[in-house]
Amino acid sequence: MEPAGAHGGEMAEQKKPAKTKHRKNRLEAFSDGVFAIAITLLVLEIAIPVEKGEGERLLSGLLHEWPVYLAYFISFMTIGAVWMEHSSLVDAIDHIDGVFMRLNLVLLLFCAFLPFPTRIMSEFAGDVAGERVAVVFYGLVLLMMTLMLLVMGRHAESEGLFGDDLEDERKEKARVKYQLLPGLIAYIVGGALGLLSPKLGIVIYLLIAIYLAIPIRDVTRLYRKRA
Questions:
Q1: Backbone Cα Rg of the chain
Q2: What average pLDDT does range 136-152 have in this prediction?
Q3: How far apart are CA 119 and CA 114, in angstroms?
Q4: pLDDT cut 90: percent of the chain above it
Q5: Between helices 128-158 and 98-113, what is the axis angle to 10°?
Q6: What's the rounded mean pLDDT across residues 9-34?
Q7: pLDDT at 21 over 70
């Protein structure tokens, strides 16, 4: 005869509702749209430096706007890198759940917000006090974007969103090890150094953007094959 407690536990397990699984195609389409809009808004912040009829000052005006171009390049490369990492993660998972969808929204929130701190950083270039605040503020947004990618990957792993494909889980762990964790640490360092030297903070953000855009694992694999 089975104990009453055991029978009750089985009944509770049977009544426990199954987690809702969602298709990922709509999330991919929506996310790609937000990334595209955010990266387009960056260039809309670049203004013509002189008025029409002042052609003799055009070259010097364009050269004078170099902080704007630098901020644009860093933000463009960063959004591009986040998009690539996001695409790799979503391609690897089998399905999504409600929590993953909400985490994705938070990532897109910071991504769509990035043109604002980008403009602030370019506007206050050369103003030491303002530039210090702008660089730290900008780095904080970059940090949150990278952190959300980490959180999304960890949630997908813990909730079994990768399905039965162990290879995809291994790729996710490699992605975290070689791309996201180094970037996360570097953003923290860059923000801290930005308090002391804003220019140094900007250089670190630039190097991170280039690093994240380079397929480190593929380059390493190619180097090992040739060695």
A1: 23
A2: 93
A3: 9
A4: 35
A5: 160
A6: 70
A7: no
At 151-204, the pLDDT tens digits run 998 888 888 887 666 565 566 666 666 677 888 888 999 999 988 888 899 999
Q: In this model, does residue 31 exceed pLDDT 70?
A: yes
For residue 180, which of 207, 153, 155 has the smallest C-alpha distance? 153
Contact 225, 92 (CB under 8 A): no
Structural tokens at position 61: 């005006």
Task: Identify the residue whose tokens are 């220019």.
Answer: 199
Pair 111, 38: CB distance under 8 Å = yes
Contact assessment for residue 117 and residue 137, using Cβ atoms and an 8 Å cutoff: yes
> Phi and psi at residue 78, in whole multiples of 5°?
-70, -45
What distance in Å separates the CA atoms of residue 113 and residue 115, rounded to the nearest whole number? Answer: 6
Query: What does the alpha-carbon distance between residue 98 and residue 164 come to, in Å, rounded to a whole number?
Result: 20
> Whole-angstrom Cα distance, residue 72 to residue 63?
15
The pLDDT of residue 34 is 96
For 27-56, b where at least 16 C-beta lie within 10 A, e where not — what string? bbeebeebbeebbebbeebeeebbeeeeee
Give how far Cα 112 sits from Cα of 74, 84, 101, 186, 208, Å. Answer: 15, 16, 16, 22, 19
